[in-house]
UniProtKB/TrEMBL annotation:
Organism per entry: Ornithinimicrobium pratense
A Pfam family assignment: CN_hydrolase
UniProt-listed PROSITE patterns: CN_HYDROLASE (PS50263), UPF0012 (PS01227)
Keywords, in A-Z order: Hydrolase
Location of the CN hydrolase domain: 1-271
Gene Ontology terms for molecular function: hydrolase activity
Similarity section: Belongs to the carbon-nitrogen hydrolase superfamily. NIT1/NIT2 family.
Lineage top rank: taxon: Bacteria
Coiled coil: none
Name under which the protein is recorded: Carbon-nitrogen family hydrolase
Length: 289
């Protein structure tokens, strides 16, 4: 299974509209997609991970594409859903390249408020090679200690473990986002539901990049899963991003790691490595619950 992580760099919102940035990301997906099975983008690349003041304006309405995900649009005979601007070029690029695309996360805007009265969420979106949404995940652990995400966004409430479509169907995927990485119980819960590979888009700052690198390896080792950790590059809203995206195998071996600038990692992984690692070193069988 061949995987590409796109460690996208960006600056301030005013420098690049959502449409311009989405077109730039889609070009990268198109360039690498044709000879990969799964391509991954980082967290909140269209809105800016720390650009809190831009979130509302750069938020995306996913209602139509979510309806298509569960087949309602097809049943209605409505045809192609109306894509939000951050995702429209990416859906086209996934389709052209015939690749499964984890499109990172967007600031999702909902018409109805959630339980805490907010209309925004940090939502990851996965697109199939037909360009349709095949999975979504709302970030469960919000980062900001009372400001930022906890102030403006609803917390996700659902674990998402999913079998992606071909050509990325070799491993069961667990979805999570950035700050989630600090909460090992989330990954244990995903493991217990069958996860074999964790995909973690992020906008993790340079100031704590060693924690990012260490925790990504820790999650791989303790759950004997692959980890695809796709961070952001650049400086936005005054916060320098840490880069160091990585592909890590179930032994904790780093198969590839990016530097701090925009970069694309391209890695061939052996899906059989998960079962082999769990058989050769059956540590999970020794858990005491
Ligand atoms: O946990 C951290 O240090 C960074 C988390 C973060 O930036 C995020 O979740 O957006």
């Amino acid at each position: 299974m061949r995987i590409a992580l796109i460690q996208l760099a960006y600056g301030e919102g005013a420098e690049e509209s959502v449409e311009e940035r989405a077109a730039r990301a889609a070009d990268l997906v198109r360039n690498v997609g044709h000879d990969h099975d799964l391509v991954v983008l980082p967290e909140l690349w269209s809105a800016g991970g720390f650009a809190i003041d831009d979130w509302q304006e750069r938020s995306q309405d996913l209602e139509a594409v979510r309806a298509a995900e569960v087949g309602e649009a097809a049943e209605d005979g409505a045809g192609e859903p109306e894509w939000p601007p951050a995702l429209a070029p990416l859906a086209a690029a996934a389709r052209e390249a015939g690749v499964v695309l984890h499109a990172g996360s967007v600031v999702e805007r909902t018409a109805d408020p959630g339980e805490e009265g907010r209309h925004l969420s940090n939502t990851s979106v996965v697109l199939g090679p037909d360009g349709r949404v095949c999975a979504t995940y709302r970030k469960i652990h919000r980062f900001g200690f009372g400001s930022g995400e906890p102030r403006l966004m609803e917390a996700g409430a659902e674990l998402v473990i999913t079998d992606l479509p071909a050509p990325a169907d070799a491993l069961t995927v667990g979805l999570s986002t950035c700050y989630d990485l600090r909460f090992p119980e989330l990954y244990r819960a995903q493991l217990d539901l069958g996860a074999e590979i964790f995909v973690v888009p992020a906008a993790w700052p340079a100031a704590r990049v060693e924690a990012w690198r260490l925790l990504a390896r820790a999650r791989a080792i303790e759950d004997q899963c692959f980890v695809l950790a796709c961070n952001t590059a650049g400086t936005h809203a005054g916060v320098e991003m840490g880069g160091h995206s990585a592909v890590i195998d179930p032994w904790g071996t780093v198969l590839a790691e990016a530097g701090t600038e925009q970069e694309i990692l391209s890695v061939q992984i052996d899906p059989g490595a998960v079962v082999k690692a769990r058989e050769q070193f059956p540590v999970l069988a020794d858990r005491r619950l």
